[in-house]
Design a protein that fits this description.
five-stranded antiparallel β-sheet, 38% helix, 13 strands, Jelly Rolls, Arc Repressor Mutant, subunit A, disordered C terminus, alpha+beta, DNA-binding, HTH_AraC-typ_CS, single chain
């Protein structure tokens, strides 16, 4: 499963709970319709994912996607967080996974699980591991569960907190492998992220990295699969989306992101997204309504 670029994902929380189970409690063999993070707070669990087995101890997490036959079993009395989510959903409103969970025969456990890949700036393609220990997960997962179980949960807030959790996971995984994969264009990427309003030229960006412009352009495309101009436009649009959902004024957004007028900003935004800034803001408000009744 190729998720695409980390900056482009629109995660949606489908289910979130903190729960406990006695020793020997098992889920599966089964397949789920989305992705799941299973984090052990205390106790121990075993994940059989295809032909592989992973011991999930306190402070560790299991991760798997939709085409991954598995059995999850608690080996001792266990407290845990369970999050079901989609990586890129048009609406942040949760879609409970219960109706999409399918029991499968034991024979399917011989199948290899589907790997999940996504692209990360300054790194390239990252394959998410099925078993990991990531610092700081518990407070964010707790906040997701609290919001999901609130009397009137806010889907956009759930999306924002899920994005925070996924970004933290990806960031820590990338940092661990930094010694094996160091971006040659990180200085340019950071400059465009931190100062998107600048009219960056290829020569200026190349100088930041210490390369000739033609060689820099080649390296840039190899790492992020686009050219510097399109990357800068995409970064401006990404930051504009966040600002619109925060309720900032159009002229303030346009000025900060380097547009010479609101008209130019609006035209460019609609070209890239298919919506005017006002339409995008209104759509975000409409999506943040109440969840409605969910099945148990």
């Amino acid at each position: 499963m190729n998720i695409g670029h980390l900056y482009d994902i629109r995660p949606a929380v489908h289910f979130a709970a903190r729960a406990s189970a006695g020793a020997g409690n098992a889920w599966g063999p089964r397949r789920i319709p989305d992705c799941q993070l299973f984090y052990v707070i205390a106790g121990e669990a075993t994940l059989q994912l295809g032909p592989d087995q992973f011991k999930i101890k306190a402070g560790e997490c299991a991760f798997y996607g939709p085409d991954s036959p598995h059995i999850l079993k608690t080996d001792a009395p266990t407290q845990y967080y369970s999050l079901h989510f989609g990586w890129d959903e048009p609406t942040p409103v949760p879609l409970h996974p219960a109706y999409g969970i399918r029991n499968v025969p034991d024979s399917e456990l011989a199948r290899l699980p589907e790997p999940v890949h996504l692209t990360v700036d300054g790194y390239g393609e990252l394959t998410l591991p099925h078993h990991m220990a990531i610092g700081g997960m518990e407070p964010v997962m707790s906040s997701i569960v609290s919001e999901y179980q609130a009397p009137q949960p806010q889907p956009l807030l759930l999306r924002a907190r899920m994005m925070e959790l996924l970004s933290s996971i990806v960031g820590q995984l990338v940092n661990r492998e930094a010694t094996m994969h160091v971006s040659k264009i990180e200085a340019a990427l950071r400059a465009m992220r931190e100062h998107p309003g600048n009219a960056w030229s290829v020569a200026e960006l190349a100088q930041l990295c210490g390369y000739h412009p033609s060689y820099f352009t080649k390296l840039f495309y190899q790492e992020v699969k686009t050219n510097p101009k399109q990357y800068l436009i995409a970064e401006r649009i990404r930051q504009a989306k966040q600002s619109l959902l925060r309720g900032e004024k159009l002229d303030e957004i346009a000025n900060r992101l380097g547009y010479t007028s609101i008209h130019y900003f609006s035209s460019n935004f609609k070209k890239e997204t298919g919506l005017s800034p006002s339409e995008y803001r209104q759509q975000g408000r409409a999506d943040s309504g109440t969840l409605g009744t969910q099945p148990d």
